[in-house]
Amino acid sequence: MEQGFYKNRMRSIAALFVFVSVVFGIKLFWLQVVNGHFYEREADRQYITPKSQIFDRGTIYFTKKSGEHVSAATLKSGFKIAVNPKTVSNPELIYQKISPIIGITYDEFMTHARKQNDTYEEIADGLSELQAKQLSDLKIKDLQIYRQAIRMYPAESLAAHVVGFVGYKGDDFTGQYGLERFYNKTLSRTQAGLYVNFFAEVFSKIRSTVSDVPNTDGDIVTTIEPSVQKTLESEIESIQTTWGSDRVGAIIMDSQTGAIYALGVTPAYNPNNYQDVSNIAVFKNTLIENVMEVGSIMKPIVIASALESGVITPETTYYDYGSVQVKNRTIKNFDGRGRGKVTMQTVLDQSLNTGMVFAMQRMKKSEFREFFKSFGLGSKTGIDLPGEVNGLTSNIETNGDVEFANIAFGQGVAISPISMMRALNTLGNGGVLVQPHIVTDIEYSDGQLEKKQYKSIEGVISPETSDTISKMLVHVFDSYGDGKYKFDRYTIAGKTGTAQIANPTGGYYKDRNLHSFFGYFPAYNPRFIVYLYNEYPKNGAKYASQTLIEPFTHIAKFLINYYNIPPDR
């Protein structure tokens, strides 16, 4: 009896020992592995920084073609200095000693040093190790020196409109623009749990200790391919320089999955020096946050809708007089000329507005409206970037003859570039409306990995209609410049668009145009779609065919070679 009692007691003690060992092991792993980087930085501080001043943040990665991850936003080590205004006895003397090292103005220093109600005032941050040593050697007892983590963008301006930056919003140091803002909750770090008494945590919060509570802190892995991004940015910068454009933007997307390999707007900025930007409009990602009347790149959408509804074929003909009367509105071709009896293929080849009105009018208005909506035009794509806007598409809700005629050739509705590209992408990929996206994985700080899932909608148009409209668009692209841009070994489906820019006071500017272009390839099983827009080009630029086709061909050739895409001709 007594022997059994001792055995049970020994078993209980052993079980308790195992339990405590497991808990200590988990905690040791948490301290050394999961949060090791934090404690390394803390151990290197000369003094303990107030908890509210601790900064940590997850990493944003680009993904190379090889699958290798490279940092787009990370942390680097630096130093900051602070004073306690309540104990500073001679601020003038301190200023005389430190100003040659950090370059601070007298007024700026005194603003901090004379805040008598504060016990902690930062004087400067982002200092180098040399500056920190020089300040330390001064042996100023009222000056506190801390090692700090600084947000750094190794790629500098590359993909700045995708990445964004971290900056002050009021008193909060938080993500601004781009992924830094959209995934701010994920990228932010909270170290409050690291200061909880260990034994209190073990015995009162066991469930938290063993990670039963979901973690939200992590690093994010993107689809942005650095070499592809560099190529795209080089081309749009060249477009802006050549044509003196207000803005140029472009996107490269995987046609089958919606993964965005590159996205850029120019003028751009360096997020390491975002405070040097004088015009905050530069931060805006106009591909996501702006809407535009896109002009003739709307025409393939309308033709595809008419093909799907069965009211036309590529060989359907009509008589082009150069203009068409719709109620009280006369709609003309871009050059005002009539072509006589022409096919729907010629309508796309020569971008005839009259032919678009003809094709649209063959459909019922309710049918055309449903097609328009099924392409996602006017609605958000759900891309994981902030500030996405809906389109201005109220005209499609009317039954106005003039409104519908305008929509048929790309005026009277305003669509964001990302939404327009998604719609155009369905023409080549068999009628699938994909969800454009930037992030593939979230690597949580507790070791968990989340694979992001994105939705797609099938059946916008049939595979047969997709094949037909792609053939028509290959013919369009091959005919540009009398065959100058044709790829001998690859089928390219593409179309230009030139639209007048709306005047905020009403009507349209007579001398300002928006140029657009899209192309996908190989045309009948596309790997990529490329979308470009060129806002208010000058220097004699009249049509998109002048400003955007050649840059597109440069991008297409790069992608074909870089990804070893096999020829289909």
Please give a structural write-up:
The protein is α+β, with helices and mostly antiparallel strands and 569 residues long. The protein has a domain at 226-562: 3-Layer(aba) Sandwich (Beta-lactamase), CATH 3.40.710. It has 21 helices and 18 strands. It has helices spanning 2-34, 36-43, 91-102, 106-113, 129-137, 160-163, 178-182, 184-187, 198-204, 206-209, 226-243, 286-289, 299-309, 344-350, 353-361, 365-374, 401-408, 417-425, 463-479, 544-547, 549-562; strands spanning 60-63, 69-83, 121-127, 143-152, 165-169, 172-176, 218-222, 247-254, 260-266, 317-320, 323-326, 329-332, 340-343, 439-444, 449-451, 493-502, 508-521, 528-535. The strands form 5 sheets. Strands 1, 2, 3, 4, 7, 14 and 15 form a 7-stranded mixed β-sheet that branches. It has a 5-stranded antiparallel β-sheet with strand order 9-8-18-17-16, sandwiched between helices. α3 packs across α4 (106-113). It is elongated. It starts with a helix and ends in a 7-residue tail after the last helix. Mean pLDDT is 88; it is low at 41-53 and 192-212.
